[in-house]
Amino acid sequence: MRTGWLIAAVIGCAVFAGGCGDTLLVxxxxxxxxxxxxxxxxxxxxxxxxxxxYGPQDTTIWIPKVSERQWQFIVIHHSATPTGNAAEFxxxxxxxxWDELGYHFVIGNGTGSRDGEVEIGPRWVKQKHGAHCKVTxxxxxxxxxxxxxxxxxxxxxxxxxxxxxxLARLVKFLMKRYNVPRGSVYGHGQLKPxxxxxxxxxxxDLWRRVGLS
Length: 213
Ligand SMILES: [Zn+2]
Description:
alpha/beta
């Protein structure tokens, strides 16, 4: 019995690594992924050292706690900046006069947040329409389009392995939960004249990872 409790304590410590002072990378069997707590709707990049780290199979953190929007599209972006995180892009978007961060999710590259970390923006918490894909005559891409932004300028660099792994997991989760077909998952540049998500973004790699290649 004592041994059992000891094992439980060690496992508990590993799962909630923040309380043990060390960062835990979960490698089994997928690459490391870091998900951010969303209970309060706070942007996690503001308190990165206190983030809980969830196991690789745990996608429940992405399930909204409010009534879900009838999402029909997923639109992938890059930030076109070498660095950044959700909090920084939130400020950039507010400085442009927008209400708040235009994307629903931001996937870090190890600069402003951890590599492969999925930050959940306040729009997703509230299930609010996007502000990331304005196409004349097609308000639906913002109204019912989920915006995912990968940090980086993929005209110059490539997404990291952890970013692509996290993107694939997130896209797979969202497609299943909202019944979004492959044909309704776009890169920004497939909907309007823009390089976004960058010349080096590899769609076939994404679909291979999602299991739909
Ligand atoms: Zn874009």
